[in-house]
Amino acid sequence: MKVRDALSILNGMFPPELAESYDNVGLLCGHPDAPVTGILCALDLTEGVIDEALDKGAQLIVTHHPILFHARKNLREDDPEGRLLAKLVRSRLSLIAAHTNYDNAPDGVNDQLAAALGLVNVQALANGLRVGELPREMNVRELTEHVGKSLCAVVRPYCACDTAVRRVAVCGGAGSEFYPLALAAGAQAYVTGEVHHHDALAAVAENLAVLEAGHYETEQIAIKSLANRLQSAANALQYKVTVMESAERPFARPY
């Protein structure tokens, strides 16, 4: 396998045309013809992930979140992204990002978030959102506990705790501005990773419960599937490559 082969597989699963216009997906560092025998999949690129790739003999890192999201005018190592870029280049590692194209694709991040919460009759909405039904009606207190256990997350609810919920919309990551889509789809609750204060106020004023479950927690659940799907596709094409899920966890967990 070469880097370009891995990119072709990923583009087949998560077409780049599904990415939002502001995004930065695809091959972000490295040479398309570089050989690959090991691939490490992670939510974010960190120095720990780079070290893990080197320790495990991976030549390619595939992340959900891209680097170079905003234009750079220098490559200095006294800022976090500059250090990452320099370390990638020195280590001769390649980097591919599958971001909003993975969010929006069938069986992508948001479908997996819906599945993790046990939603049924799931439908796709704009901006990658999904909406479905809980197996049984819950109040917001019960739903908060359910989401917390399902995602191993500390969940912050915005709404009265006795509000009845059956229909739930979800969006991994930072999705609070999309709450009108959840409302329009008839959801009584909206689960996303990050919630802005004024979006929460506006949503609650419209009787929509909003649950903030963590950017990391609402997306990390999709990395194991990413690694498994990439391994299966590589095996089907008879590439001799090992795809691994990163064990790196950048944040300390209080639970």
Task: Give an account of the 3D structure.
This protein has 255 residues and is α/β, with parallel strands linked by helices. It is 36% helix and 24% strand. The protein has helices spanning 3-13, 47-56, 80-91, 100-104, 109-116, 140-151, 179-184, 197-205, 215-220, 223-236, and strands at residues 26-29, 38-42, 60-63, 94-97, 120-124, 130-139, 156-158, 164-174, 189-194, 209-212, 242-245. The strands form 2 sheets. The chain has a 6-stranded mixed β-sheet with strand order 5-6-8-9-10-7. Strands 1-4-3-2-11 form a 5-stranded mixed β-sheet, sandwiched between helices. Helix 2 (47-56) links the parallel strand 2 and strand 3. It is elongated and about 55 Å long. It starts with a helix and ends in a 10-residue tail after the last strand.
